[in-house]
Amino acid sequence: MSDSMEINEQFVLEEDELVKRIFTCTETSAMVLYLFYEKGQTLDAKTVEDILSAIHNIQQDLETELLHLRIEKTIAATLHKKELKSKKKD
Predict the structure, then answer these.
(1) pLDDT (0 to 100) of residue 55
(2) What DSSP line would sit under 70-90, residue for residue?
(3) CB 41: neighbour CB atoms within 10 A?
């Protein structure tokens, strides 16, 4: 396997992991909201809000990390494309 293929595979694995973690945040937030709906009278609203805010912050951090990973992946693909074009000209 070539270096560029290994690098791309690593990007894909990292991207998949980040997407899974973001999905987990989304699902967890939904479950907390549902729990709050079901047991709202027995739960402290401020604490639930703090928990949801913390999950939201984690999700934003993960989405930012995913954005940067996708930028790096695109840059690597562009460089690889240029290398291939250069080799064809030789």
Answers:
(1) 98
(2) HHHHHHHHHHHHHHHHHHHH-
(3) 5
